[in-house]
Amino acid sequence: MRRTPARRPTMKDIALRAGVSESAVSFALNDRPGVSPVTRDRIRRVAEQLGWQPRAAARALSGEGSATVGLVLARPARTLGVESFFLQLVSGIQEELAERKLGLLFQVVEGLDAECATYRRWWAEHRVDGVLVVDPRQDDPRPDLLGGLGLPAVMIGAPAPEVAEGESPAISTLGADDAGIMAALVGHLHALGHRRITHIAGLPEFAHTQRRIASLRAEAARLGLTEAASVTTDYSDSEGAAATRRVLDRDRPPTALIYDNDVLAVAGLAVATERGIRVPDQLSLVAWDDSVLCRSVHPALTAPVRDTAAFGRHAAQALTALLDGAPAGHTQEPLPRIEPRGSTGPAPTGPQEGPSGPPKSS
Amino acid sequence: MRRTPARRPTMKDIALRAGVSESAVSFALNDRPGVSPVTRDRIRRVAEQLGWQPRAAARALSGEGSATVGLVLARPARTLGVESFFLQLVSGIQEELAERKLGLLFQVVEGLDAECATYRRWWAEHRVDGVLVVDPRQDDPRPDLLGGLGLPAVMIGAPAPEVAEGESPAISTLGADDAGIMAALVGHLHALGHRRITHIAGLPEFAHTQRRIASLRAEAARLGLTEAASVTTDYSDSEGAAATRRVLDRDRPPTALIYDNDVLAVAGLAVATERGIRVPDQLSLVAWDDSVLCRSVHPALTAPVRDTAAFGRHAAQALTALLDGAPAGHTQEPLPRIEPRGSTGPAPTGPQEGPSGPPKSS
DNA sequence: TTTCCGCACTCAAGCGCATTAGTAGGGCAG
DNA sequence: CTGCCCTACTAATGCGCTTGAGTGCGGAAA
Predict the structure, then answer these.
(1) d(CA A170, CA A328)
(2) I need a labelling partner for A270 at 20 to 30 A (CA). Which of A178, B50, B170, B342 fits?
(3) Over the stretch B272-331, which tens digit does the pLDDT of each residue have?
(4) Count of helix runs (H) and strand runs (E) in chain A
(5) In chain B, positions 117-176, which contact chain A (CB-CB < 8 Å)?
(6) A127-139: per-residue pLDDT in tens?
């Protein structure tokens, strides 16, 4: 015995009650000319009183767009839900979207193909007016796809694309200064005396992974570090731990490790703890993305602190600009500050000169 | 110079090309009687070839529902994005929704009022066909609200509601056996010899927090533990650390701590590490929700391992059943298995008998 | 006074789909 | 051959909103 829910009022109801035509109601409620201020007020009052809200489908059908933007997350389930980055980002995105009364259609898929298929379907069904794209890749097919579909999009964390003079790019981009952050991190460690630095990176197919790797190499060359290297992982804790073990087992193990996200870093810290390697006395650790996690563990992890929510907000702003008809363009996020915490300290010196630790519990 | 995007085909295009009326197309594509098998096939082929997809808004407008379900997350930004629980849950939800071609409209808001306002707006705008509700509360206003609106809903992690015989509840519920898990955790610790157990709980306004607290009390009474207690937090790492410090500073500190989520637990572990308290020799720790995090830290945290993605899938299934016209009902998740890891061990014995640790670094 | 214009508003069409009512044509019983 | 039903389809309507094309009216210009 389910109560029949209250019927939702339509513009017709308002028109009837206000004694005007539906068109007048439409004009009044959309701030269009064609109604006198008095009538407008009256209509507005009636609408308010009836609790009227425009029916999304009807709006969309008459060419107004769906008032929705999409976001697809394509990550294998294993590495999903471990980084605080995404929820923070989404939280920031929402702040901006809420102001514009835009909804966020969210989808989690397994891989890139499914992601592209989702974009196509959303486009074909007119479900979204635009999309936010994360995790830019090497030779990314998505800008072309979205550009071809004419679906407004913002690629988050991508450098400015190269386009011919006068041309405008297919989609907007919001850059995070990966190279700059890497340089700052290496600089921080170098200043502490570290000369052997290893970078435990994320998925090699992501463009930012490549940029970070390249930047490390460049910085190492600049500073004359001959023993700087990167190893890639899938962002999972298990690969983070495994990579850490492998790296520490080397003949001349690094004295400092840079991890591409917080999960990898925490896994690395656990390996150090397990081996009895003192952090930061024998080994310094840095996490790329700051998070509650980095501050929760002991010692707390040194990390670049950026305002991820603001990052999301800016991305959403770039998208709404696009929806308003602005041409696609590039925005650059400011360089975050490196916050030194307990996990980094002066490089070890003396005979041992490295994190070999007590007898390995191989 | 943006290319004009390809025009998306409509049923009219199909009708034209197949040489039939629009109605025939509609019948054919919706498996309705009224077209011969031959014509149906022809129409289907044309549709396929044109890459036709029904336009969501048009469908919705003609009474088919929006093919979208909603999910609102109402948590203060501070505690957002720290738990892997939600993304895992959403990931599971999506698996089920994808099969039914349902979209997920996602919203992050600051508080309960905003959450309710979101439901009202979605309902008024016909934006969603149903919603998934998380974080049930004491005296939760949402079931009544949603029931009154006639918006199908599944409350995740709620016990079966009390309804009069023959009546059906306003919304469906999907129960997680909080009491059972707590009993199992206490049983695990009790078997290890622990007699002084403290529960670092989450937000007191959540119903599951109260159930856990009540269950701890009941188990303690049953087992004759006089020194079991719960303290509540806001789920943040800082309160988790603070609560841990406070509890450990007591005259007779507990020998085991149960944390209501992984973030709290990791924060607690960091406090122990910082104070030089050996885990699990001097202090045992348990985290409520398993996650990569629990396995990443050292020692790894004992936790009940449940399949959170499956949980989400079941919730989505309950909702789709509702959308199919089934009456609201209750489903119960199975009791998860407790996985003992490095963070729990036998209760400390001897003169010291507790985790006072080395001189406190007050 | 007449003409014209602009304001305030109404009418009607249309967005893409579902659906109900209608219609042509063929098979079958009478 | 007529009347009837059934199948296979078409025509028309409506969902709620926007929008371009009217329409009636009062006031300013001539």
Answers:
(1) 7
(2) A178
(3) 999 999 999 999 999 998 888 888 888 999 999 999 899 999 999 999 999 999 999 999
(4) 13, 12
(5) 121, 123-127, 147-151, 167-168
(6) 999 999 999 999 9
